[in-house]
Amino acid sequence: MASVRKQIVAMGGGSFGAEPEGSCLDAYVLELSGKPRPKICFLPTASGDAAMYITKFYEAFGERAQATHLGLFGRPRTDMAAMLTGQDIIYVGGGNTANMLAVWRVHGVDRILREAWARGVILTGVSAGMICWFEAGVTDSFGPLNALRDGLHVLPGSACPHYDGEQDRRPTYHRLVRAGFPPGYAADDGAALHFVDTSLEVCVASRPTAGVYRVAADGEAITETALPVRLLG
User: Fold this and answer.
1) How many whole angstroms separate alpha carbon 51 and alpha carbon 165?
2) How far apart are CA 44 and CA 165, in angstroms?
3) What is the pLDDT of residues 23-33, one digit of tens each?
4) Which partner for 190 in 3, 15, 170, 207 could form a disulfide, CB atoms 3.0-4.6 Å apart?
5) Long-range CB contacts (< 8 A, 24+ apart) of 223-231?
6) pTM for this model (two decimals)
7) Is residue 1 part of a domain?
8) pLDDT tens digits for range 96-152
9) 153 an active-site residue?
10) What is the residue-wise DSSP string for 18-36?
11) In a domain, 25, yes or no
């Protein structure tokens, strides 16, 4: 039997929450499923299951996919493992990454997501939904931008979203990596990294100026390498 193709599409910013007219990044993820109406589940945990965010998700995907969502505030009334591992795509929304990870771990969603990935369910997300798959990331979960060091460790290294969208993101990431933070990837709003297994396969963007960068330390210096990006749409 062919090995399972394990995929993660980590978006730095954009997607349906910011591009209601239609996100090329979202369309790219749907196409990866190879199905005309893939099953897609939204995890809005980082936003506290915000009702407006959930509504926007259904507006964006309701006609193109078999869309559902999993709320974790209140009392989840479903078999979460069966629900998530039975999807074609799991989409993680933005918000407070630290809170999201804590809630996931209480309910065992962190373990279920790893199982879903191992089974070939496509994992994707924006902002918090980019950071969470890595070992570490740059987050505003605690107020000012700072280090988050307890990601899911599905992908090695660190991640920084909104690289061009918030002026403090780049200097904060550089400072952290220079001080020993794991090297990793930064993505502008409108850019995404597509991983197969744990290797970066391609970088894509919905905006002509959106970039993706490999960020590492070389002694006291920071090396920031712009990666090739394929413009979508």
Assistant:
1) 25
2) 21
3) 899 999 999 99
4) 207
5) 224/174, 224/186, 227/200, 227/203, 228/203, 229/191, 229/203, 229/204, 229/205, 230/202, 230/203, 230/204, 230/205, 231/204, 231/205, 231/206
6) 0.96
7) no
8) 999 999 999 999 999 999 999 999 999 999 999 999 999 999 999 999 999 999 999
9) no
10) T-TT--HHHHHHHHHTT-S
11) yes
> Among all chains, which residue has been given the structure tokens 């005309």?
36
CATH classification at residue 59: 3.40.50.880
For residue 108, CA distances in Å to 7, 36, 84, 151, 163 come to 21, 31, 12, 14, 31
In a domain, 145, yes or no: yes
Q: Domain containing 195: what range? A: 7-231
- The two tokens of residue 195 are 């991983």
- From the list 127, 141, 158, 206, the catalytic residue is 127
Q: Total domain count for the chain?
A: 1
128 CB contacts (<8 Å, ≥6 apart)? 46, 92, 93, 94, 95, 96, 97, 100, 139
2 domain residue, yes or no:
no
Q: Which residues pair with 90 in a beta bridge?
A: 41, 123
**Residue 202 in tokens:** 């391609």
- Say if CB 184 and CB 160 are below 8 A apart: yes
Phi, psi dihedrals of residue 89, rounded to the nearest 5°: -140, 140
Give the Cβ contact number of residue 32 at 10 Å: 17
Q: Is 128 helix (H, G, I), strand (E, B) or coil?
A: helix
Neighbours of 150 (CB within 10 A): 15
List the one residue out of 16, 3, 2 whose CA is nearest residue 53.
16
Spell out the alpha helix ranges (H) of 39-195: 51-61, 80-85, 97-107, 109-119, 128-131, 169-178
